[in-house]
Structure formats: structure tokens, C-alpha cells
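Q: What would this chain look like folded?
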Amino acid sequence: MTRARHRDQQRADPVRVTVARGYEYERGQFVTFTPAELKALDVESSKIIDLETFVPRAEVDPVYFSNPYYIYPDGPIAVETFRVIGAAMTEAGEVGIGRVTLSRRERPVMVEPRGAGMVLITLRASEEVRASAFERSDAEIDPDMVAIAETIIKRRSGRFDPASFRDRYQEALRELIEAKMKGLPIKPKQIAAPPVLDLMAALKRSLAQETAAAKPRRRAAADRRQTSLLLPMSGKKKETAKPVPVTAKQSRRRKA
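A: My prediction, written as C-alpha cells:
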């Protein structure tokens, strides 16, 4: 009886968990902050955009872009200011770099004219952008491969159309939800990864398909394993087989 009462008493006692905000400066070592200390860091939101400098638009690397916003003038006086600054930036080909306070936090921003209005893009800080680690190679590029790739790019050149972009995951998710609501059987789709092919062969296949689309004629069935210009890439730090390019000499030898 004594043990049972003791067990019931343990179950009745509430478990107290203390939640605190902090920063881990070493593994397992934290410095914590009180709500009052964090509150003191808040900055009141402001509608004023402080432009500190103007730079050529091409110098702003898009990797620093975070979130875009349309900005509008606040009152008749601001309308004229917007128009004057926008016209001047358009004429100079430059954009404004400055700061604005949003959601109690000061953020670096870029402001550029957009038609009759302006667009503000919040920027990432330098420490938030990781430097690229591309490997530099002095190896010569096969001119035949470059020529084929240029031909494919020219034939597929078009205009940027955001309306053509589709979130295929969301579309598939909606279809799954509708099927589940209707009680229909769910058939998982089999997704076959495209094979890693010889780059020269892939380029020639893409070029042949582009030529056939432009000038239809009777020919043998084409290999449809790679209908687009696919670029092999690695992911999740996993080693992948690298396609072996065919040199110009080897290409001529095969033709002969």
C-alpha cells in the first residue's frame, strides 16, 4: 500500500520544464537571455527607407536577394519624390542601397525603379552568403561540344514567362488529397532517374531531336531517355559517376 500511494503521488506531481532562449557558444555551453534583455534589442518599425549609396545594378549579385516588396509613396509629396528618384536611377542605370526597419529589425535593402513604381528587395548579410567552391579547370573545352550546345540554346531561346512555372509537387498533393477524400485507391508513381550519359552523346541526341521537331521527316524512333538538355550534378555529398566526354579527335574518328 505504501508503494502504491507513493507511485500515485509521483504521477500526480506535475513535471516542470523551464524554457529559455540562449546561444550555444561551445558544445553544451549556453549563454541565456531574459525576455527583458531581448526586448531591449527591438527597434520600432519605420516607414522611412534610408538610401545610403547608389551602385550599378549589375554589381548586385542575386545570391544576396532575400524577399521582394512593392513599395508605394505615402502621400502626394512622396509621389513626386518617388518619380524623381526613380527617373534618376533609371537614367543612371543604378539602384539604391540602404536600410529599413521591418518587424522590429533593421535590414539592408536594395531599391530599384519598376515602371511607374519601385521594388524593394531585402538583402542577406555577407556572413549569410557562403562563398562558392567551384573548382577551376584549365582543361580545354571541346569546341564541337560548345558548338552543339550553342545551337540548342539558340533554338530554345524565348522570353521569360513566370506564368509557365508550375509547382508540380503542389499539384500532385492536391490530386492526392482529392483521391483520399473520394476514397480512391492510391497508386504510387514510379520515377525513373535519367541515366548519366556521355555529354557529347547527350548533346548530339538533343540536337537531333531539335532538328526533327523543326523539320519533321521519316526516321527511326529516337531515344527518348533524355528529351531535354540535362546537366548532370551531384547531391547530398554523394559521389556520382562523371560522364566521359568525347574529344574532337575521337569524334572525327567515329564519323569516319
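The beta strands are 21-26, 29-33, 50-56, 65-71, 94-102, 105-114, 117-123.
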